[in-house]
Amino acid sequence: MITAIVEFKLPQAITTPQAKEIFLSTAPKYLGMPGLIRKYYFLTPDGTAAGGVYLWQSREDAERLYTGEWKAFVRGKYGSDPVVKYLETPVVVDNISNEIISNS
Length: 104
Prior knowledge:
By secondary structure, the chain is an alpha+beta fold. It contains 3 helices and 6 strands. The protein has one domain: Alpha-Beta Plaits (2-Layer Sandwich), CATH 3.30.70.100. The strands form 2 sheets. It has a 4-stranded antiparallel sheet with strand order 2-3-1-4. Strand 2 and strand 3 form a beta hairpin.
């Protein structure tokens, strides 16, 4: 599994309620996305940057999303280019499903 952390600066600070409204407008496009296990949207405490933490089955799955077209969408929606950081994720503890998930 791969965790991708995507972050981008905002043109002006926003509040958590504003972020929630914006994020809810884009969230449906990630439902059922091949290879995506989970996505968390985030906003920095000062409201000047935002992004997502994605858990993917593989890096190849992640890279199918982070295309030039996707970067242009982020730039158009939020006003800056996203920065993507990839991390190997060998084990996940999920307290909702009460399971430990690991690559086979």
